[in-house]
Design goal:
Layout: H1 2-6, H2 19-49, H3 55-62, H4 78-88, H5 92-103, H6 111-114, E1 115-118, E2 123-126, H7 130-172, H8 191-204
Antiparallel strand pairs: 1-2
Length: 212
């Protein structure tokens, strides 16, 4: 996604100077980064408090959450992710809002980016102009660079926490019986293992979760 967002900014690419498209993709990368940051924050909080709390519900809303299917958890709105990052990285919300002004059909992404008002001759000149595109290009490059750095940091940090988090899950969540039941002498399957297998099944065979 981030690589695709860079292409409209490169003057040697066929998609050169498609700044609105670049900003939309950059905003999507920022949202993905915010979701990962929120997950990392939840895992860190669980380890600090030595209890899972509501993290399981939040993960289930993050993975298969949707408004389009019945009996599925509601997704977490992206605004909650952005606010989570803002508490640790002041200014994140403001930058996200600026990207949204271009991504939505607002003045900056339409008339502000693709038209120039000639007040002296009382006309509007439609098309890209440096005075309009340079702020958009600077905004896009700055946010894309920062979100990639934050994503790398967050991804590495949550990865470092995984071993301790799995141990916490195994201690807190009671074991589940296997399909054959405990009477056959087989070891009970832990809820943590069961959740991991369910998540893997969802990602490898989404059709089983998304009928039709």
């Amino acid at each position: 996604m981030s690589r695709t967002a860079r292409r409209p900014l490169n003057t040697t690419e066929p998609e050169a100077e498609q700044f609105a498209a670049a900003i939309v993709l950059t905003r999507a990368a920022v949202e993905t980064n915010a979701a990962l940051w929120s997950l990392d924050h939840g895992v860190s909080t669980a380890l600090n408090q030595k209890k899972i709390g509501d993290l399981d519900d939040r993960v289930m809303r993050l993975l298969p959450g949707t408004y389009t299917r019945e009996n599925f958890p509601n997704p977490i709105r992206v605004g909650a992710f952005v606010k989570c990052v803002e508490r640790s990285v002041p200014g994140f919300q403001e930058q996200y809002n600026r990207l949204s002004e271009y991504a939505h059909p607002n003045a900056r992404g339409i008339t502000g980016l693709y038209s120039t008002i000639d007040r002296e001759n009382i006309l509007v000149d439609f098309g890209l102009r440096d005075r309009n595109t340079e702020p958009a290009k600077a905004l896009c490059i700055a946010n894309l660079s920062v979100t990639l750095m934050l994503f790398e940091f967050t991804c590495n940090h949550v990865s470092d926490l995984m071993q301790d988090f799995v141990e916490l899950c195994e201690k807190e969540v009671p074991p589940l019986p296997t399909a054959d039941g405990p009477q056959n002498g087989k070891a009970a399957q832990s809820a943590a293992e069961y959740s991991c297998q369910s998540a893997w099944a969802f990602t490898s065979d989404p059709g089983s979760y998304w009928p039709g």
